[in-house]
Amino acid sequence: METSQLRVHLVTAINAAVAAGAVIMEVYNGDLEISYKADDSPLTLADRRANEVIMSHLKLSGIPVISEENKQVPFEDRKNWSVCWMVDPLDGTKEFIKRNGEFTVNIAMIVDGAPVMGVIYTPATADLYFAISAEKQAAKINLSGKSLSVESIFQEATILTPKAPVAYNRVVGSRSHMNDDTLLFLETLKTDTGASAEMVSVGSSLKFCLLSEDKADVYPRFAPTMEWDTAAGHAICKALDIKVYQQDQTTELQYNKPNLLNPYFIAAHDQFFA
């Protein structure tokens, strides 16, 4: 897909994410109306409303959508999609329920199994992150108290320039899904590199955002995630030459797979995998 086309879709994704963020905050400040899915994961009124808003924006593109809150399309049909949207209307529902602010709206575009564009919006803080991977540039802007056109957002956003770490001592992990494998990774990193590695815990796709802002060096994920959890963050990291490799450390995460469950992965700068 040409960059000019991706720019048009990026505008759509930004508008959808910010609009979804507004309805999420309306629920956040009121009754969450919590229910539970078949797998016991929580679902709130905000998840449903945000999905409706995002779908109303994305359907105009004519491109199929994979969203956590939509009925999943069988792979027999999806396998013919060379392009699709990948959406998590409210990533970090557990953090949303805790009202700790660590939740995001994730919207990505997938072309031939790879993330090529990503938008992450944090409704509680009004931070917007976005990138077209091929442009090798990602940006961030805080929209708090602002009513900006997307063109103004493009002009006023800060370009992100994370530096390759000298030592991988800032490890970011999940606030709600910490486990022994992740802690073992941390201890092994300390042994192998001699670094005084420390774990920083944060919810949702904010972990990718910390990498993009040079506030973390490596993000190991040895617990289940779905494609919609990672696609937008992966696209943003890809624009900054931050790899999101499967646990084998040689193969990037792939999208629109027969099974939308991700393998375990590690996200870090190129040098980490050398």
From TrEMBL:
Binding site for Mg(2+) 1: 68, 88, 90-91, 229
Requisite cofactors: Mg(2+)
GO biological process: 3'-phosphoadenosine 5'-phosphosulfate metabolic process; sulfate assimilation
EC supergroup of this enzyme: hydrolase
Sorted UniProt keywords: Cell membrane, Hydrolase, Magnesium, Membrane, Metal-binding
UniProt subcellular location: Cell membrane
Membrane topology: Peripheral membrane protein
The reaction(s) this protein catalyses: adenosine 3',5'-bisphosphate + H2O = AMP + phosphate
Domain of life: Bacteria
Any one GO molecular-function label of the UniProt entry: magnesium ion binding
Binding positions (Mg(2+) 2): 88, 90-91, 229
Record-linked SUPFAM superfamilies: Carbohydrate phosphatase
Any Gene Ontology CC annotation: plasma membrane
Signal peptide (residue range): none
EC number: 3.1.3.7
Residues annotated for substrate binding in this entry: 68, 90-93, 229
Family in the record: Belongs to the inositol monophosphatase superfamily. CysQ family.
HAMAP family, sorted: CysQ (MF_02095)
Main function: Converts adenosine-3',5'-bisphosphate (PAP) to AMP.
NCBIfam families according to UniProt: bisphos_cysQ
Name assigned to this protein: 3'(2'),5'-bisphosphate nucleotidase CysQ
